[in-house]
Structure formats: C-alpha cells, structure tokens
Design a protein that fits this description.
CATH class: Mainly Beta
Number of domains: 1
CATH topology: Neuraminidase
Radius of gyration: 26 Å
Shape: globular
Number of helices: 5
Order of helices and strands: HEEEEEHEHEEEEEEEEEEEHHEEEEEE
Distance between the termini: 73 Å
Oligomer: single chain
Largest sheet: 8 strands, mixed
C-alpha cells in the first residue's frame, strides 16, 4: 500500500512539472495605486487697470458677501484704494472662458495714517472680512521684522474701509527671517487667526498660530503643522473648520533651509513638480481640539511653468464647490486665475 502511494505521488509530481513548463511566465498581479499627486492648471483671468500691472503687488484676497476684494500691498499707489469684483462677473468669465478684462469697483481706504505711524512700514500683507469688519495684517522692519494686525469697518455700500488705529496689535515673528511675517488671516469660531509665513523644521521648530478675539485681544495660541517652504495665504474657512493654504517655494530662497517635505514624501509629486524645484500647491488644513492639523488628503499641486519660473501666489479664496481663485504679487507679473477641483477629487466641505 505504501508503495502504491509513493508511485501515485511521483506521477502527480511529474504532471505538475510538465504543466508548469507549459505555462507562460506571467508577472505577479499588481494593484494600481489610486492617484494622489494631483496637478491642476491655472486658467488665467484678465484683470482690468489698474491691477493689470506688477506694481499692484496684490497681497491678499477675501470674500465680502458676493464680492471678491483685492488687497494691494501699497494701496497708496492707487489713491488709497482696494478693489472688488462681483462673484457673478467671475463665474461668467470662467464659464465662458472670457479673456475680457474683469470690471472692478474701487474701495477707498482710510488707513488712519498707519503707513507713517508704524516705523519701517512695508505694506499690508493679508485680509479677511467678517460681516462688516475687515482685518488686515501689516509687515514692518524696525531693525528686525515686526508684524501687526488691525481692524476696520467696511461701510454698507462697500466703497469705503475705515481702519481703527487703536485696534493695532503686534504679531511678533516666530523666526528671525528677513521679509517674513504673518501673511494669512482667517476668521473662525469668533476668533481671528493669523499664520506665520515660515513654518519649516529648520527655521521654526515649533510653529503656532496667533489667535485673537474679534476685537483683537490676544488669546491662547494654536498649534500649527510643520510645513516646509512658505505659507503665503489662506482661504475662507467652512463650517467644519476646513480651509486651504498656499504653499510656495522658489529655488533662490536659501534662507528657508528646507528639510524633508512631508507632503511630497507622503503623496508624491506631479509631472511638472518632478521636473522643477519650484513648489506651488494648495494644502488642506482643519481646526481641531488639538489645534490646526493637515487633512488626510493630497495637496493640489499647480502645473508649473518650465525652467523653474516661479509664480509667487499671494492670495487665495475658494469659489463655491468649483475650485479656487488665486493671485500673484509682482512675480513674475500680476496673474489672476481659477484652479478647478480635479474631477476625481471630492471637494472638502
């Protein structure tokens, strides 16, 4: 009986060897990973005069109802004016792919003389609007850098902002870096929160966000994630505490001393980001009980220009569930554009 089983074993083994030799050499099956390194083009929109010039140096965007406000870094170059464009105008231009200059209306700024009273004034850097209250950050260099925040009132006809000099509050920079201050403002949960520009590991090992009440009295700071490169603006915040920040790097910016980049390591790089050292992307963040944290979702990378020609994006808002509106300062010129959510990317709400 034992011999019979052994004979049967050898017959089956021989058949298995012959059968295997007849099979093609198939590779192991590999599941295709879901795409994570989203890259999207910027669809440019045409700004009308006087913002169609690099000297506009637009440093921030904010919604005020159904109007988009543009903040020049130096409103004094435009007779102390900011500017606004209606949402309907923007939607129509995007839907029709119009190249016509976008009509805009001026908003007169009464700055309460802050340009002269703040030593080393270097311009307005960010804007947020809550109901009829406007919040602006200011950058100054008094030997060392110093930041400020100030509030003002936007009138009912939306053609004048009057700043309150008594509300001026210092925002001490978190690192000793030239030309770096708090360049982003959001309003959430009856708080005004500002974000410092440099939050990389090698220059700001313990980043945080300034938190103030609506009258700009300081409150406890909030923790902020380590994000290499620069954070140059933040979008409006939704009811769930979700928002986006611009994350930007140009190769000549040596002072940031970038460490390993968590986001590219985790989610990868898009095609143009693999061809350049420039970084232009939008990172989703959220307010939590533990502070401000990254959302577990890939950043949206912007399709880059060739040859490391960087675009210094300085203003950001979301446009309903369609995508984003984004604007540069003077480098390489004044550019204003729309970035759509990827079709396969579920918008964060």
């Amino acid at each position: 009986m034992r011999k019979t089983y052994l004979n049967l074993f050898f017959v089956l083994l021989s058949l298995l060897i012959v059968f295997s030799a007849c099979q093609p050499n198939l590779p192991a099956r590999v599941e295709a990973p879901e795409p994570t390194a989203y890259e999207m083009p910027v669809t440019l929109l045409t700004l009308a005069a006087p913002l169609n010039t690099p000297k506009a140096e637009i440093s921030g965007l904010s919604w005020a109802g159904d109007w988009l406000i543009f903040l020049p870094q130096y409103p004094g170059r435009f007779n102390n004016q900011l500017f606004r464009i209606s949402k309907d105008t923007l939607l129509q231009a995007i839907q029709t792919n119009s190249s016509e200059p976008l009509p805009m209306l001026p908003i007169t700024l009464d700055s309460a003389g802050l340009e002269k009273s703040i030593p080393g004034f270097e311009g307005f850097e960010a804007i947020a609007v809550e109901n009829n209250t406007v919040y602006l950050t200011i950058e100054a260099k008094q030997g060392e850098m110093m930041g400020y925040i100030v509030s003002g009132i936007l009138n009912e006809t939306m053609d004048q902002i009057a700043l309150d000099a008594d509300s001026l509050t210092e925002l001490e920079p978190q690192a000793k870096l030239d030309n770096m201050s708090d360049e982003s403002i959001v309003v959430f949960g009856r708080r005004v929160i500002t974000f410092y520009e440099a939050n990389g590991f090698n220059v700001n090992a313990d980043p945080s966000a300034y938190s103030l009440d609506l009258d700009l009295h300081p409150m406890d700071r909030l923790s902020f994630p380590t994000i290499e490169y620069r954070v140059t603006d933040a979008s409006n915040v939704d009811t769930n505490g979700l928002f986006w920040v611009i994350n930007y790097f140009y190769p000549g910016d040596k002072k940031l001393k970038p460490a390993e980049d968590f986001f590219s390591q985790t989610y990868g790089k898009g095609y143009t980001h693999n061809q350049n050292t420039t970084v232009e992307r939008l990172i989703p963040l959220q307010f939590t009980e533990d502070g401000i944290v990254p959302v577990q979702k890939a950043p949206i990378q912007l399709e880059l220009l060739p040859d490391d020609e960087a675009r210094n994006w300085e203003g950001l808002v979301t446009l309903d569930d369609l995508g984003f509106l984004i604007v540069t300062d003077e480098f390489p010129e004044t550019l204003f554009g729309f970035v759509a959510f990827p079709e396969f990317y579920e918008p964060i709400r």
